[in-house]
Amino acid sequence: MTTGQLPDLTVENLTVRFGGLTAVNNVSLTAGSGSITGMLGPNGAGKTTTFNACTGVVPAWAGTLHLGDCRLNGRSTASRAAHGLGRTFQRMELFDSMTVRENVALGPEAAMSARRPWGQLFCPAKEAREIRSRTSTAIDLCGLGALANRTSGDLSTGQRRLVELARAIASPFRFLLLDEPSSGLDVQETEQFGAILRTFVAETGIGVLLVEHDMALVADVCTYIHVLDFGCKIFEGTTAETMSSDIVRAAYLGSEGVSAAAEGLAHA
Amino acid sequence: MSATASARARKAGPLADHRPAVLAALPAIAVLVIGIPWVQANHLWPFVVTGVTDGSIYALAALGLVLTFKTSGVFNFAIGAQAAASAYVFYSFRVDAGMPWPIAALLSLLLVGVVGSLVLERLALWLAEAPAVRRVVATIGLLVLLQSLLTGLYGTATIAFDDFLPTGLVEIGSVNVGVNQMIVVALAIVATIGLFLFFKSTRLGISMQAVVDDSNLLALQGTNPVKVRRYAWAIGSSFVSISGMLVAPAIGIDVNQLLVLFIAAFGAAAVASFSSLPLAFASAMVIGVSMNLLASQLTSNQNLTISAFYTQVPFLVLVAALALLPPRRLVERGARRVRRARPIRAFPRQAVYGTTATVVAVALLIPDLVGPGDLTQYTTGVGFVVIFMSLGLLLWTSGQISLCHMAFAAVGATSFAHAQHNGVPWLLAMLFAVAVTVPVGAIVAIPSFRLTGTYLAVITFGVGLLFQKLLYGTFLMFGKFDNQQVTRPDALNMSGDRGYYYLSLAVAGVCALAVVAVRRSRLGRLLRGLADSPVALDAHGANTRLTRLFVFCISAAMAAVGGVLIAGVTTSASGNPSGSFGYFNSLVMVAVLTFCGRQPLLSPIAAAFLFVVLKIYPPFDSGFFVDYQGVFFGALALAVAVVPGIARVQPSRRGALRTPEGGPVRARRDLQLRGAWV
Q1: What is the pTM of this model?
Q2: Could A153 and B343 be called an inter-chain contact, meaning their C-beta atoms sit closer than 8 Å?
Q3: Domain residues of chain B, as ranges?
Q4: pLDDT, tens digit, for every residue of B180-208?
Q5: 3-state DSSP call for residue B421?
Q6: CA-based nearest distance A122→chain B, Å
Q7: CB B226 within 8 A of CB B71
Q8: Cis peptide before A7 (omega within 30 of 0)
């Protein structure tokens, strides 16, 4: 299903195995366009592996992946990106020798370079103008104007997260996977980040699948949430349903933890 | 699990996880089934016995290489030089000092194996968070240093070395086997089994596998990572040292010969994915036996290339293994800990223009400032500036490693010569040379689609050796006389030294402009992105394979131009290993360029001056500097590679050096003392 030209991401029965270890086991989920869908789970639940399988960084052992009508299985990472599936990384992947502006600009430029066989050698004036426009818009949206000429390797973690987001926003993606984008941000930066994300989705209608541990951010921006544990999907529902789910709390705190928390609340 | 997954699981069966081992065993069994009757029928068992003995020596070196690479992430390119050092020291104690061989061997083992391991362990520690380029440059620097030092001290002639192990014969079946051969094989078997069990069943062995990935985590478990690394390097270096001593009686001692011989250990380690000790042992045996069997069949052939083909086996195995192994088996060890290099310092525009104008002015005045004899050296230097620029484009702009750059230059020079021999004018012949070299660059680029960092360095090293040993002597390149004549252009008095210098300068200027143009183009931005984060570039839709292909092709084309210019200086191009196009120069050049920095134009100019021109001026024109220039270049490259890592190692209060990993160990002990546990 797509809203206008923008696609949903559909994952059906995804299984990812590394030798004898099943990292993701028969997971199905749909993340719609024009909304922010959350993916929760404790460390080792298989969230980043799901992202990696969606973007072709690791092969899917079984299952199908679709971006709108486009089947993603068997395509390379670059091909999936060219079809509109963008992502950020848990361990930030910036072009550290470049300035913030160059970093953000290289996102759309990399995508445009793949449009023609000789696209890597020449940059037509029309594309150069489009890259400049996209870069400026993304930098303004993320509030990075003051840092635009700073080398990204010299920035703080929070600023680097914003640069990575700006680069993804500037690129001609039609769906975004954001992997723990608020990791390393303080409370104020996280609130700013949530506001940027909401504005971006509202203005563009692009769908976002968000892996995040910060419950406040998830509750603030997500409309629907999928929860993984030990590679399996254990719950899905609206944000309110997820936040009140005993299954989800047990996955995060353990069943003993939930009991202890409940007792603590009762005593209080 | 979905129906598809279940079906695949059923289809895979219980052997699914052991499929690589099964697939590797099948051809081995087939070879044995066909090979044993063939060997029996042709009475080739003596060659098999010699092959197994050679293979045992390669196996010891391969075990040392795998062990140290597994535990440090540093691929020791210098094992051949280290083995040679051990053999030379053994020779000095045994022959020069007249010591009994067991004492001489023990002293050599202590000096080269154990003391050497302490030095190597410290280097590896300093390189723990270094990018792959710096790790490669460090051991290349060490290799260049040791080769030059040993050549300077002991000369280039092969030193004969008598057997020191018992030489009696034992008849096994119908074959006489030397006692010394049996001892060597037994040593290799015991070492392999011992190391295998050590890794599988002892705490220290398991720790050795963990130390490269996360030494801090290991420290939190109460194991000192420094101690673990030290043991690994001591065992690995000792194996290499022993293999050097064992090989000496068979072939004599010659550092340059040993450097090439120990590529067999690289090949064996590559087949074993630089990880499996038993597979490294088995591969070394196969290499040793196949070399001897091929030698028995081919050495009588009239064609020199065919008769010496058996010597190519290690290089072919090395290149084939790295080209065919699945990338998932070639994990860049310690990559998680790598700290990215600081960006290249950008100078103010006025400074750039001022420096460029000064360099151009000095370059134009050179023919009036230096004597006619020195001018040819400067012209050679200009040719090398072009090659260094092409190397810098690959190494620093795109983050790709090439240890076969002089092979590109050689292809260019010889294609140019062939074109000239067929009456093609100078400029068209140069364009022809570029056109021939670009596809060669494209072919060498193919491994870079799958391999990065250390593995790319190793395979390009193997490609360089293959060119030198397999192709240089053929009619396609330098021919059987290892030489091709070229001519300079006649127009505008360019056939004279002065005219040819200016022509070379003009060509180098065009190449410099090309480098600037590439760096400022979209391709340049993609190359910088590739160097910083290929993953991010891929995730944004760029075809990074195409990017790698372009940069290798452009770099190879420029190297070809440099090769043409160099050949024109002496109007002949030689494929001699010690000549300009020798494979070893590719290694020395990487070391020199590293020392000269990462600036796209100034660094190549400085590197070419150091590498070619400096030796005409006192005190560098002395025989001492010429003999030991590799020591200087190697030491400088080593210093540049490790200095950033030295700052990471904090001096402790007691003044002794202590790594950051020492902290968690002490913290854990403190926690234990307080009865707390994390």
Answers
A1: 0.83
A2: yes
A3: 41-166+177-335, 382-612
A4: 889 989 998 998 888 888 877 777 777 77
A5: helix
A6: 6
A7: no
A8: no
The verdict on A185 and A67 lying in the same domain is yes
The range of the structural domain enclosing residue A156 comes to: 97-171
**In angstroms, how far is CA B639 from the centroid of its own chain?**
18
Of B8, B536, B543, the CB nearest to A95: B536
Task: Answer yes or no: do A110 and B550 touch at CB < 8 A.
Answer: no
Residues of chain A with C-beta less than 8 angstroms from the C-beta of B340: 96-97, 153
Question: What CATH number does residue A191 fall under?
Answer: 3.40.50.300
User: Based on the structure, what is the number of domains in chain A?
Assistant: 2
pLDDT surpassing 70 at residue A92: yes
For residues A180 and A229, membership in a common domain is answered with yes
Chain B residues with CB under 8 Å of A61 CB are: 5, 8
Q: Is B523 on the interface with A (CB under 8 A)?
A: yes
User: What mean pLDDT, rounded, does chain B reach?
Assistant: 83
Q: Give the distance from residue A109's alpha carbon to the nearest chain B alpha carbon, in angstroms.
A: 8
Q: Which residues of B touch A74 (CB under 8 A)?
A: none
Give residue-wise pLDDT tens across range A212-232.
888 888 888 999 999 998 889
What DSSP letter does each residue of B364-389 carry, written as one string? HHHHHHS-HHHHHHHHHHHHHHHHHH
Annotate A111-141 with b (16+ C-beta within 10 A) or e (fewer): bbbbeeeebbbebeeebeeebeebbbebbeb
Residues in chain A closer than 8 A to B537 (CB atoms): 106, 110
A44 occurs within a structural domain: yes
Residues A243 and A218 in one domain: yes
Cross-chain Cβ contact B522/A151 below 8 Å: no
DSSP 8-state symbol, B93: I
- ∠B326-B329-B333 over CA atoms, to 5°? 135
| Mutant choice from B18, B540, B599 vs A, greatest count of A C-beta within 10 A | B540
pLDDT score of B343 more than 50? yes
Considering the domain architecture, whether residues A214 and A165 belong to the same structural domain is answered as: no
* pLDDT tens sequence across B527-547: 999 988 889 999 999 999 999
End-of-domain residue from the set A115, A148, A171: A171
CA B427, CA B435: separation in Å to the nearest integer? 12
Which residues in chain A have their CB less than 8 angstroms from residue B1's CB?
15, 25-26, 62
**Final residue of a domain: which of A114, A148, A171?**
A171
Residues B540, B543, B545, B546: is their CA dihedral positive or negative?
Answer: negative
Both tokens assigned to A75: 């395509």
Q: Nearest-CA distance from B341 to chain A in Å?
A: 8
Classify domain B41-166+177-335 by CATH architecture. Orthogonal Bundle (1.10)
What proportion of chain A, given as a percentage, has pLDDT over 90? 52
How far apart, in whole angstroms, are the C-alpha atoms of residue B40 and residue B53? 19
Phi-psi bin for B348: left (phi > 0), alpha (psi -120 to 50), beta?
beta
Alpha helices per DSSP H over B521-601: 522-532, 534-539, 544-570, 583-596
Q: Give the integer Cα–Cα distance in Å for B396 and B399.
A: 5
C-alpha closest to that of B315 among B468, B93, B208, B478 = B468
**Pair (A138, A207) in one structural domain:** no
pLDDT exceeds 90 at position B439:
yes
B414 touches chain A (CB under 8 A): no
